[in-house]
Amino acid sequence: MPCYKIEGVVPVVHPTAYVHPTAVLIGDVQIGPRCYVGPTACLRGDFGRILLKEGANVQDTCVMHAFPGLDAVIEKDGHVGHGAVLHGCIVGEDSLIGMNAVVMDGAVIAPRSIVAATAFVKAGFTCEPESLIIGSPAKVHRKLSEQEIAWKQEGTGEYQRLTLRCLASMEECEPLSEVEPNRPQVDAGETQPKHKQ
């Protein structure tokens, strides 16, 4: 993976985490146990610290950047959808940031909350736990239901299983020129590909 130290500070990746080879890590980045970092994500710890705590995921094309004096943190089991931008903010334990959402400096997303896709969370935003946050600028819409929290946790579990699948079997290869007979099919519900009948 593209990994760069700055001023002698080197990124740290726990051996049980998976960071895609196209993701970029710069400086004071710490990826904890069982984390997943997707293709072309950029985590730039050149102004402050970036922390991904146990079981967190940062998906494809996400950007994380700290602000001077403000770390960018994803707490345990935090879940960040494709294309989101996190800047000097804190994503609380077991919270979800939707696809293409932006969360700005000093914002704190409380535990077990969901920020909707494409939401814009202003600097300094705070909320209560289990909040549904939507809009631009984003506001708390209501409290999440138990079913919504369970749905989020199920999705995060899939990414934690994906981490194991990637560690076990992801490898660079050349594409085939045609589809082979009895082509296996990837099934996210299983740890091994199955053959389509």
From TrEMBL:
Residues 175-197 are annotated as: Disordered. CDD domains: LbH_paaY_like. SUPFAM superfamilies: Trimeric LpxA-like enzymes. InterPro entries: Hexapep, PaaY, Transf_Hexapept/Carb_Anhydrase, Trimer_LpxA-like_sf. PANTHER family: DYNACTIN SUBUNIT P25 (PTHR13061), GAMMA CARBONIC ANHYDRASE-LIKE 1, MITOCHONDRIAL-RELATED (PTHR13061:SF29). This is Phenylacetic acid degradation protein. It comes from Marinospirillum alkaliphilum DSM 21637.
